[in-house]
Protein 1
Amino acid sequence: MLLRWDGPEQIVETEIARCLSDPERAAVGFLSAKVSSKCERSRGKLSCPLTEAIGLGEQCGAEHKRLVDAWLGPDGVPSRCAEVPDTAFNQAVYNEVAVETKGDRVIVDDSGTGTDGPDSKTWSWKERFEFQRVGSSLKLVSKTATGSPRRY
């Protein structure tokens, strides 16, 4: 498990993150571009534990976009890359993120929870993204989901 919760803390397993291949990092970077989980803004930059652990630096920054776009092309970083700090009123966080490679497939499973703020409604989701490696690129071949990281 690359990311999990231990009590009140979100844990990113840096030992696992260091061992990810570039295609796996790109697949997880694709995921992190959709939800900025437990991120902090400092000096105009957004620091996110998951994005940093996989070696992509600042959330939605040049390195993050470069690697994801290099592997996924037009399916890479969305035009509205998630840049929501931990202090935001509306936010979503990952509860779990797991990545595995089976042959030419990279599979990323995630689950998470979102909130509209204090005393507001919450929602949750589970997703599975399956990418196929074709040469030096990845193609999203399957997505299954229950719920959505975005409530609206």
Protein 2
Amino acid sequence: MSGDLLQLAREDAKFFVTQAGFQEEIVLMTPTRDMQLSLTGFASKHWLSHDTDGLSVNAKNVHVTIDESVLVANGYQTRNSKGEISLNRHIVSFPDSTGISKDYVVREVYPNETLGLIVMILNDYKE
């Protein structure tokens, strides 16, 4: 049984990602687009990165953070037969600051299995 403090940390983390005021409407779709789920989470798109020398460079970075339990509760499969998060090549859409939504494809997935959150690094989607 997890400790009370850990349970509170999980609840707080999910609250901040999904409803604390920084959330964005996100649509997640399977690669074949046969399943689609709308949910809230943290979404970011910015143009600042760092090169191997630690210098700032102009490079697009797009990522979202979502609550895995929302996907599971809605029947959206998140794990493969080995029990690992498997969302690469799934399609993610969210609006930017101008309200324009754009489709992205999941390039990398970084689950936080302590808190139940999933961070997905995205690339531009090309049909």
Protein 3
Amino acid sequence: MRPYILAQIARAEDFFPFICYLNECAKKGETATVVLTAPLATSKVQERETMNQVIDANIGSKLVTISLVERLGDGLGADIFLKGNERYTGGTVYREGERVPQNQITGGWKEAFEILKGYIKEDPKPFKVVGDITVETNVRLLQYLLACSKSGAPANITIWSGGGDCSHLAALKVASEMVPKITTIGLKIVGSTAASIFLLGTERFLCPGTTYLVHHPRHEGGIKPTAEEMEAAASTLRGIWATMQALLLDKTNISLDVLTENTANGKDWRLDISECEKWGITTGDYEEGRKYL
């Protein structure tokens, strides 16, 4: 059966289809492949225990788990991940406050993506990142890159976005390295997460009038977190920034000193077309790139 993408589990509408998928795989004697795209944290101990009991009662003999997030904290997401007979992630996983050792992880994202490529049937079509980037956007982009890798087709990504969810950048970076040619075209605004996705391109073009924006990833406000949750969030953001920074340093002429100076203390670094050309953010003139739109 096809892999199950698990992003939410708090509501019955999310939990019930997941349980049905596990049960169906078990009845057919087939491998269940679960792809975690969010930490699935829950602060209610009793609820977590109950949900684990329901999951355990419906798992068959073979479960493959894949986590696409930078940090899978101590919670239901980590519980599900560790139930796998095979476990794949390029991020970190925590259980009872301790990092799960590498010898309990079967493989990284590259090995996981080779498994997922086996389920891809459709031919890739040009991909558009428009508006706020969500978890769903990142998952669809990942699927697109894997489809290109499987078919050998070049990837073509158009971006008009100020950013959004950045929790899958490291996984997207690994997937992009499996595609020989990626063309990215930016229009109007290419910021934050979108700026990092733009750098996945081996050929990169920005339309005149486009602003390219770089800054540290930020934690969205919401329910007041505990001290432990704040530290987990800070650790996740440090990991995401390390990926953003690596892309900028590897793909452009920007030095670490220049990057630090322009993004220190939460500053937004806005660059116009001429500055993007100067720093090697783009690889060619827009007249050359517009044919890919």
Protein 4
Amino acid sequence: MKNVIYNYYDILVDELNKSDNNYFFYFNNELFLFYLVLNDISVVENIYKYVIENNIECFNIVLNKEGNLFADVDKKKYVLLKVRGILKYEVKFDEFKYYPVNSNGVNWGNLWGERLDYYEVQIRELGIKYQTVLNSFGMFSGLAENAILYFNMTMEKFNDMDSSVGIVHNRVKYPCYLVDYYNPVNYVIDYSIRDIAEYIKSYVVSDDFDIDNVVVLINRMNLNNLMFNLLYARLLYPTFYFDIFQLNSILLLQESP
């Protein structure tokens, strides 16, 4: 990987540290993160343009020596980020920032429905060898169908109300660390309640879970009926399960002849 970084960025790395699928190193006393892109490429490209034009606070994406965003490694795409601050600094919810965007939110009903159809195909073609996946899929697909129905009903009932759309995150976990929060590759444009919904879902399964804290977080946001019901729809959708399912389905496809 050191050779890849040198070939793309003309940076000689002395010591390279790996964390999951990502790499950290220091160069000229500055910390860099060589980060695997899991978000859609077109989304990353659009977000990059937006944060540059609007001076959004985030880690800087370092362009490669060809002036491109991405480095190709074994059919995967990476970006190089210049990091500021302490990677494991915990960003509390009251430190979350919101950058409004003049755009429509994502139609979660359509998106979740298309993904569910895709996952069902994967189950039929590959899941028969993996009984645990087969046993769990029905319950979580049922939750997803309820979330889709609730989202569609919400948009039909409250479509005349103001929605809040801006720069949010593909995923927010609890605890939320600076390395994830200010990573522009993790940014998306969507309804503002996306962050708090994903944060709560992660918090609920943590050892720190306290329902009173969840109530405080939601009350603090002062949501109208549309945004409150969108929050509920997002909470219903089992993001954590389908994230794992998607990663494992990729592995199953790689294993299949």
